[in-house]
Input
Amino acid sequence: MNDTTETLSKPMTTGFPGQDYLRAVVFWATFVFATGVCYLILLAIVIWKKLFDPKHVTQGAHWLATFWARWIMHAAPGWRWSYSGFENLPKEGEPPVVLVANHQSSADIGAIYLTQAQFRWLSKDTVFRLPCIGHAMKWAGYVSIKRGDRHSSHAAVRQSAAWIRRGVSMFYFPEGTRSEDGRLRDFKVGAFRLAVEEGVAICPVVLCGTKDMMRKNSGIPKAAHLILDVMPKVWPLPEETPELFARRVRSMIEARLRYLESIL
Output
């Protein structure tokens, strides 16, 4: 890891009977409390923005989502993290990018917000139906997609392109779903086709360790260390198809992930 690297740590406890369940109680109590408080604040922000600054409603909602996620990440017992490469994220006034990351766990969502970057997610439509969270996502301008629905896919592409043209980055998990074993799945090409057609770079993000924070289909968080690494921007090569572009970026993420796993 390099340059902008920060480690935020909390002591890893040695363990005792029932520790995992106690950790789960603390985590989910914090999650519910933080979600409720932030939702009430968000209502006020949305009303204020719609009345006095309607062009920036989604921006305000996204920044509050960032605060919400960081609150939960900091409060989770036994979670530690370090990060690098944040200088590769687009700064204010710079062209947007399409951010892509490997997907190991539901903890990936909180991990990405640690970047504090302004972006819009592509997320499955079922998440938008969740109480409070679904409303917040709509107000933030996040993009919904229904798996297997071609009309929904086309609409998601149009919305994503519209955000890019407004100067806002888009975020994708190109594997489409969380990996069962932490190994990188094949990448879908949507994010890469978007980057090619809109003339922007791909910014690869590598998440290492989140699979141990919150395993798939488990609601019990574990003590673990996350490494979040933002790699330099990648542009398509001349005559490179979106499919080949996706494979090339996948290989880069896979190689970086293996290296980070070796030092974690």
